[in-house]
Write a structure and sequence with these properties.
The chain is α+β, with helices and mostly antiparallel strands. A hairpin with a 2-residue loop joins strand 7 and strand 8. The protein contains 13 helices and eleven strands. The protein is globular, with a radius of gyration of 21 Å. The protein has a five-stranded antiparallel β-sheet. Strands 6-9 form a two-stranded antiparallel ribbon. Strands 7-8 form a two-stranded antiparallel ribbon. Bound molecules: adenosine-5'-triphosphate. Adenosine-5'-triphosphate binds next to strand 1 and strand 3.
Length: 411
């Protein structure tokens, strides 16, 4: 197919998404592109998307390779979703909360997509509001860059805030993990906030999700039905969680045509800052982060083909801003001198000799690899690094040694 690339409409950690137009038909679609040499994730997404088709999943329209500005690009063609992400819709809404019947309707549509994907033997692995796109008739699941076959072993993937406990512990990532993430997404829609409070960074999130006995806080303003729905999604034991097909019968969901809900979807979309047409170029462009441009991505070897130290060295080369969504003032001690910093989150290792403090940072962070590698003797720190590595899809984090004044206590 001959096509022309329009303006960029979104940046992810792995690719840039632009509007595109078919020269023959004039049809508008979205194109997700990355340099061919860094297209492993996108090609994996292409393989998965090309094998599925559902009205509740952003549809696949083909792929090709182009040469643009002396770069060889891999392009994945997708159905164009004009109204931005569900995350945009939540935050554009007054107070960040959506009406419960609208949430019931969106949740129904996401579940229909998840039920379909699970029946195909696939796990999405990264359900969250920013991976749900809003169209004229509701929402669809997007971004299958982390998806895998359920039986496929491999590193954990996804976003720490939305990870199920078994995923955070690196044990398993199956259908039930998507259901947990769906519960977290419902909390996002209800509260306008994140599922876990008082966690300032990915490491403490992974630790709390995986190794505490806590659940995300259920927002207070929920109906009994919504509370019960969340209870069925957010069980720490994955075997106790309801499946997508069980949940589809839950009374919280609004699945049938409902004029009240349709009106709200339209109002929500029109009040959202998300573009409502491809002509809203200025709006999209203003949200783009130059530091996340393709040029700033560094190709990093996978865990199977490199040592931890090599992968960390590559992480240290990252110059793009990792998109954790946390303020970079929120440093965390993942290991520390037990004497003066209070309890660190890693009680098990804080007494070990020769351990220095590290934090996680954004933008132009660097790693003092010698110090970090000294600390790699510990199985636990290795495990954390591997977990972070995997959860970051290899690109979103770098380690730094924070200035003393920026260390925070986790007690
Ligand atoms: N089909 C589409 N139609 C319209 N906009 C889209 C489409 N696909 C993606 N986008 C926009 O591009 C952004 C990035 O897309 P996507 O999440 O698929 O990229 P990614 O690199 O896989 O991101 P992530 O960092 O979540 O891994 C989305 O948040 C959304 O704003």
């Amino acid at each position: 197919m001959d096509w022309t690339r329009g303006h960029a409409i979104g940046h992810g950690s792995t690719a840039t998404v632009s509007v595109a137009t078919s020269i023959q038909s004039g049809d508008v679609f979205a194109v997700k592109s990355v340099e061919l040499s860094q297209s492993e994730f996108l090609q994996r997404e292409q393989q998965i998307l090309s094998s599925i088709a559902s009205p509740f999943i952003v549809s696949y329209k083909g792929c090709d390779i182009t040469r643009e500005n002396n770069k060889v690009m891999y392009n994945l063609f997708l159905e164009y979703m004009p109204n931005g992400t569900l995350g945009n819709a939540i935050h554009a809404n007054d107070g960040g909360r959506l009406d419960e019947s609208l949430i019931g309707n969106y949740t129904y549509q996401i579940l229909r997509g998840l039920d379909y994907v699970h029946l195909k033997g696939l796990v999405h692995c990264d359900i969250k509001s920013s991976n749900i796109l809003v169209g004229q008739n509701g929402v669809k699941i997007a971004d299958f860059g982390c998806a895998k076959r359920v039986e496929q072993a491999g590193p954990i993937a996804g976003t720490p805030m939305f990870m199920a406990p078994e995923v955070a512990r690196g044990e398993d990532q199956g259908f039930a993990s998507d259901i947990w993430a769906l519960g977290c997404t419902v909390i996002e829609m209800v509260s306008g906030g994140t599922p876990w409070h008082n966690v300032s960074d990915p490491v403490s999130t992974i630790y709390r999700v995986g190794y505490s006995d806590q659940l995300p806080e259920f927002p207070c303003c929920l109906s009994e039905e919504a509370r019960d729905f969340l209870d069925k999604c957010l069980r720490r034991d994955p075997k106790e969680r309801w499946t997508a097909s069980q949940l589809l019968k839950h009374p919280f969901l609004v699945g049938d045509f409902n004029p009240h809900v349709v009106k709200q979807v339209q109002e929500s979309n029109s009040s959202s800052n998300s573009p409502t047409s491809i002509l809203d170029q200025g709006l999209w462009n203003s949200s783009l982060d130059e530091s996340e441009s393709l040029e700033n991505l560094v190709s990093i070897p996978s865990s199977s083909e490199s040592s931890a130290s090599e992968r960390i060295r590559c992480l240290s080369l990252l110059s793009g801003a990792p998109s954790w969504g946390w303020d970079d003032r929120n440093w965390i001690t993942i290991r520390g001198n037990s004497s003066d910093e209070g309890d660190t989150i890693m009680d098990d290792i804080e007494d070990k000799d020769g351990i220095v403090s590290y934090g996680l940072g954004k933008q132009n962070s660097h790693i003092d690899s010698k110090e970090l590698l000294t600390s790699l003797d510990s199985d636990i720190s290795n495990r954390i690094i591997n977990d972070i590595w995997a959860s970051c899809k290899y690109r979103k984090v770098s380690f730094v040694k924070p200035p003393e004044s920026r260390l925070i206590s986790q007690s």
